[in-house]
Amino acid sequence: MRHSFAVRIGPVGFRIGSDWRAPIAQLESLYATYPKPHDGVPDFTVRLFAARPWRRFVRPAVMIGGDYVLPEAAPLPLAQGLLAAEMGMNLQMALGQRRYLLLHAAVVERNGQALILTGISGAGKSTLAALLSLRGWRLMGDEFALLDPETGLIHAFPRLLSLKNASIATVAAELPADRFGPLLEGTPKGSIRHVVPDAAAVAAMDQPARPALILFPSFGFEAAARDVSPSEVFVRLTQASTNYVAIGERGFDALTALVRTVPARAIDYPDTASAVAQVEAAWLDR
Amino acid sequence: MEDAGGGTVYRMARPETLKIVHLDSFAAIYHRASGITHLVTAPAPEILATLGEAGLTRSALLGRLAMDYELGDADEAALLARLDELVATGLVSTA
After folding, report:
1. Going by C-beta distance under 8 Å and a sequence separation of 6 or more, which residues neighbour residue B33?
2. Model's pTM, two decimal places?
3. Domain range for residue B84?
4. A260 part of contact set with chain B, CB < 8 Å
């Protein structure tokens, strides 16, 4: 393709090709401190391309292609090309990753121990991960926890944090502007702004961590906490995994071992200050 | 009660095709033959354990369950319904 960019995020190498320069320039800037894929060979390829040749110029619309595609995916306007690239990278992971059991979760680490924050979209995973990374935690990722069936360790996947709508201002109040990507308005998920993980998260991204606590945060409720039984965690994590079925018995072994050995709690929180306090309290009680 | 299964012998699926992990009151079962994960609770694990590889008829199973487990006042029709569900999933065979 005319323009391309390669990057390694944790153990996974990507190559993004594009018909347009702009999304590649944004990726180069935001991922400037990241390494290149091992041996220069990416695991996955993403293509951002025009549906018709003239659509490179006339109302340019970005189609997302790659090794794995969603056939019904609608194109995005060129102004959201960065989002298209990130969606394409997530899609390759969700559909193509076989080495690790993928859990839709944010992960932060402290003292070599990983805290897994999982839950439905809008539960506040990315927001919490961003805020915790400003309070002494190492960010390991805001989208996927990579559980290694061989070792039971979580591997980091610290791609750009994806903040949506109200959480953008919440995090912007604490973070310098140069850590933010462009504000993308009118996306299918509302306003989105990406945040570059801090230097420590990038520098340590090859260091896995032992899972120590699983939290299910829910935003918008009175502060409350309860233990979650292993069988409920098992069901919720199979639902939160994009490749549980695909990797078969290794996934079963990894997940049953995780839920039998790692405590889990559900926390409801009315605001982010309460959420951070509840996370810290749950961590102390684990 | 009427024993619809007659003399049919019910067996747990071959042990090498199952992986059973007890989580709490639920057990997760990975069925290698289908690649499907089942999450089951009492009396399903008890039925599987009681049938074993040797297998039992329906009436013999009910007798053994009553003897070996405190399944309370679970009625026989309900126990046999659970047995039929296990047959439907492939975790129990009649072959």
Report:
1. B13, B17, B90
2. 0.92
3. 11-89
4. yes
